[in-house]
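Data availability (excerpt). The following record was deposited with the supplementary files.
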Amino acid sequence: MLTKRIIPCLDIKNGRTVKGVNFVDLRDAGDPVELAKIYAKAGADELVFLDISATEERRKTLADLVFNVAKEVNIPFTVGGGISSIEDVDILLQNGADKVSINSSAVKNPDLINELAQKFGSQCITVAIDAKMIDDKWIVHLVGGKVPTELDLFEWAREVEKRGAGEILFTSMNNDGTKNGFANEALAKLSEELNIPIIASGGAGNIQHFSDAFTIGKADAALAASVFHFKEIEIVDLKEELRKNGIAVRL
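Predicted structure:
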C-alpha cells in the first residue's frame, strides 16, 4: 500500500515565507531555509516551495534560494513560480529541486506540459490548479488566484493528465487559509476521474481535516502551510494519529 504524504508548503514572497487567507492578507511566517530544515527533521515527506509573486511580477523563481533550501533537506522538494520554459526547469533542477510545479504557464501554453514531461519525465512535473467554486462550478484561476479563466477544474485536470503531468496539486481557493477543512467532494471526484496522484491543498485546520482528505477526499497527499508554520500541528503527532486511524503513513 502506498503511504499518504504530508507536505508543508513554503509560499515565498520577497525571500520570506508568508501565509494568507483566501490568497490575500499575507503575513510573515519565517525564513524558508530554516523552516525547510525543521520540516525535513520533523518527518515531512516532501516540501513544496512556491514563489507566489513570480508570475505576477514576471520574474523567475529565485534559483539561489532554491539551492540554499535544497542543500539543507534530504526529502523530495518541488519548486514553482514563474516557470514557463524548459530552460527555467533545467536551472531549478540543477539547483537542487526534485520536481517543478507549473500553473499559469500551463494554462496559457498547454503544450508546455507535454514538452516538460518529454524532456524531464512526468515524475518531475506537477501541475498546480487553483480553483474557486462559483455558481456550483469549480473555475480555474491564474496568477496567484487573481485572474479567473473559463476552464472547468475537472476538464482541465483530465487534459493535464493526458499531456503528461505526473501529479496535480489542487488548491481550493474557497477553503484556503480558512482552517475549515479541505474541499473533499472535489478531491474525491478528481481522484475518481484521474490515474495520477492528487495533492490536497487549502483548508487544513486540525488533524481530522487531514484524515478526511485521505478517507473522504481520496487524496494521495495533503499539503498545508500555516498549521505547520505556526506550530498548531506537529507533523509527528499528525502522522501518529493518522496511523491510529488506519491511514498508511511513513513514520
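Summary of structural features: The longest helix spans residues 32-42.
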